[in-house]
Amino acid sequence: MAASSRGGRAVSALLRGTFRMCPQCARSTQLPIHRFYSAGAAASSPTIQPPTPGMPLPPTDVSPATPVLPQHPRSQYRIKSGIILTRAPLLTRAPTPFEAAFFLYQKRLDERLAAPFRKGFYFKLDTPAELDWRLKVRERHGVAARDVGRYNPRGRLAWNDELLAGSPVSDPAAVAGALVRDAEMRVSEDGEEIPEEDRVKVEGPLPRRTAADEAGDATRLDRELDRTLYLVVRRGEDAPWEFPSGDVLTSENLHETASRILAESAGVDMNTWMVGRVPVAHIVTKPVFKEDSSLRRRGEKVFFLKGRIMAGQADLTNNTQGLTDFKWLTRDELKEVLPEEYYRGVRNMMAER
C-alpha cells in the first residue's frame, strides 16, 4: 500500500510539472525569425512621400460609382382575381323510377318484418278518432300503412311485394297525395261522417317548381331549387357572360380582391361567405403581339375563389365595373352561355347538380 501510494504521488508530480530550461540554454537554442514576405513586399511597393503642406493634390480620374438599379421587363400578363358565387341546392333531387321502386320495396319489406299494428294502443274505443281510423282502413283493404298501396303483409300474398312495371304507387307525388288525403278528418266530434265538401283540407307540400321556373326568370334565386346556381355578369348586350373579376392591386391578396370586386359588382345587399383563400380555378389568356414582336395587348391570368350566398340578392344599380346584367344559372346553362375556353377552365370546380 505504501509503494502504491508513493508511485501515485510521483506520477501526479510529473503530470503537474512544467518543462524547465536555464536562460543560457534558452538563448542558444532560440532560432532567428525570418519574414521573407515582408521584405519582398517592401521592395516591390514604391515609397509614397507625404504631401508637402501648401502643394495642391494631383487630380484623379476616378469618379464616384453610380448605383445601377435592375430594370425589370414589363410583364406580359395582368393578374386578376374573381369570385364564383354559388347558391347551394335547397331540395334533394327527385328520385329516379328505379330509386322510387326500391324505396317502396323497402317499405313493404319493413311492413312484413314489423309487429302487427295494435289499434287499441292508439285509439280509444268508440271515439271520433277510432271511427275515422275504421273508415280509412276499410278503404285501404285492411292495410295499416298509408304509403305502401294495397299490399297486405299478413295475407296469403305477402310474398308478392315487388312493384309491377308502370305502377304509379311508387311515384313520390302519388305517395304525398295519399298521405295528405289520409290526414283529413272525416268524422265529426259527434261521431257523424263529414261530407267531402265540408272537410277541412290539409295543406300539401309545395311544388318543386316555383313561379320563377314557370316564368323562366334567371335573375331570381328561388329557381332550380334542386340545383346549384352560379352568378354570372356581363358588360353590355353583346359582351360575353363571365364571373365577377378585376385587377389585383399591389396591396391586396387574391381573396381581398375577390371580396372587393363582389361588392363593387353586385352590391352589398348580400350575406356571403368566402369558402377559402385558395383559388379553385384559373383561366389564362395569351397576350397579343404586333408584327414586329412588340406587345399589342397584355394577357390575363384570372384566379377564381369560391363563395356562397346565404341571403339577399345581387344589385347592379351602383356598380363600378360597368355591368349591365346578371343571371343565376345552373351548370348546364353555363355551358350554353359561357365561351368555350372560359367554361373549360372552370368546369372542374362545379358540382354535378
Automatic annotation (TrEMBL):
InterPro entries: NUDIX_hydrolase-like_dom_sf, NUDIX_hydrolase_dom, Ribosomal_mL46, Ribosomal_mL46_N, Ribosomal_mL46_NUDIX. It comes from the Eukaryota. SUPFAM superfamilies: Nudix. GO terms for molecular function: structural constituent of ribosome. Residues 48-61 have a biased composition (Pro residues). Transmembrane segments: none annotated. GO terms for cellular component: mitochondrial inner membrane; mitochondrial large ribosomal subunit. Keywords: Mitochondrion, Ribonucleoprotein, Ribosomal protein, Transit peptide. Residues 44-70 are annotated as: Disordered. It is found in: Mitochondrion. Residues 207-351 form the Nudix hydrolase domain. Belongs to the mitochondrion-specific ribosomal protein mL46 family. This is Large ribosomal subunit protein mL46.
